[in-house]
Amino acid sequence: MNRRSFLAKGVAASSVATWGLGWPRFAHAAEFTYRIAHSLPVNHPLHIRLEEAAKRIREETGGRFELLVFPSDQLGSQTDVMSQIRSGAVDFFCLSGVILSTLVPASAISGLGFAFKTQEDVWKAMDGGLGAFIRGEIAKTRSLFALEKIWDNGYRQITSASRPVATPADIAGMKVRVPPSPMWVSLFKALGSAPTTINANELYSSLQTRIVDAQENPLAVISTLKLYEVQKYCAMTNHMWDGFWLLANRRNFDALPKDVQAIVQKHLNAGAMAERADLARLNTDLRQQLTQKGMQFVEADTEKFRQKLQDAGFYSEWRKKFPAAGWEQLESVTGKL
Quick one: 138 exposed, middle or buried, by C-beta within 10 A (0-12, 13-18, 19+)? Predict the structure, then answer.
């Protein structure tokens, strides 16, 4: 076993003792032991499909390649892990394109507020020209590349504790937790709220202690993080589509034999497609489940929100920040923004 494999397995062993997650045990050590990190809890479809992909990769490589999955920001905050994957300390990382934009500014384009009107439009763009454009921008970092298929995080909705958010007037001055990303901050400032950046692992406690009054996330995250315990209202705004690029450290990936590379990519891309279907099925049931848990749902006036953004110069501001080629690919699906 090489030094890299030994160190990674040592970390995994201590993780088992600390977190009790029960990592799979095999009769012999893998030739290659790599790590993948993400910020979601273990009951989210993304984590479940990553574990499934890891098992299939292990089986198809005959035990040569072992992928250890670290959920819930266990290897550090998203900004910390982004540094780790760039250096090669972490091998793979699932990260929202909007958060990735702190390193690759153009990757935020897929999260532009109120851009995609339907899920069909999302996949037409992300499996087509817009996705190819973003992967090209990520590859320019030299240290990273993104696998072909992006994982779904769904449309994001706004939850709040003190009052429902049906129009931009309802969110005026409200302290809203957002992930650490310029686009999220820009979006909610344009809507008239007071955005506050907080990492995902501190979200529940921040809402519970009223550091912030509101937050925004897809229904699956609202459910898996049990935010219904600390939030009363959920506004169906569909204000932003969000997905996770599966990033790989290029040097570490290139160190793998070509046949192992092909198997890893095949199963991780297949996992992304399965996770998309999982999330689509899950979202059809989640509203009813969350209602039963006490959340009150309101239908947001999305046209008023979109008009507020236009009046605030949000779209014209961001059009200047993105390469013309990317904006062209976006509007080829969404129409003129």
Answer: buried
Q: Which residues make Cβ contacts (< 8 Å) with residue 228, sequence separation at least 6?
A: 222, 290, 293, 294, 295
In tens, the pLDDT along 140-177 reads 999 999 999 999 999 999 999 999 999 999 999 999 99
Q: Hey, what CATH topology would domain 154-241+285-334 get?
A: D-Maltodextrin-Binding Protein; domain 2 (3.40.190)
The set of residues, in sequence order, having a beta carbon less than 8 Å from that of 6 and lying 6+ positions away, is none
Q: For residue 85, which of 150, 44, 146, 16 has the smallest C-alpha distance?
A: 146
Report pLDDT digits (tens) over 193-204: 999 999 888 999
* Confidence (pTM): 0.83
- pLDDT confidence tier of residue 5, bands split at 50, 70 and 90: very low
Q: Looking at residue 4, what is its pLDDT?
A: 46
Residue-wise pLDDT for 224-246, tens only, equals: 899 999 999 999 999 999 999 99
68 CB-near residues (< 8 Å, 6+ apart): 8, 12, 15, 23, 33, 34, 35, 36, 54
Q: At what angle do helices 324-334 and 129-139 cross, to 10 degrees?
A: 160
277-319: pLDDT as tens digits = 999 998 889 999 999 999 999 999 999 999 999 999 999 999 9
In the chain, list all ranges with CATH 3.40.190.170.
3-107+117-153+243-282, 154-241+285-334
Phi-psi region of 71 (alpha: psi -120 to 50; beta: other; left: phi over 0): beta
Tokens read off for 200: 């995902």
Q: Which residues pair with 146 in a beta bridge?
A: 247
Rg (CA), the chain: 20
Cβ atoms of 157 and 245 within 8 Å: the answer is no
Q: Report pLDDT for 221.
A: 86
Residues 98 and 188: beta-carbon distance below 8 Å = no
Q: Which fold has domain 3-107+117-153+243-282?
A: D-Maltodextrin-Binding Protein; domain 2 (3.40.190)
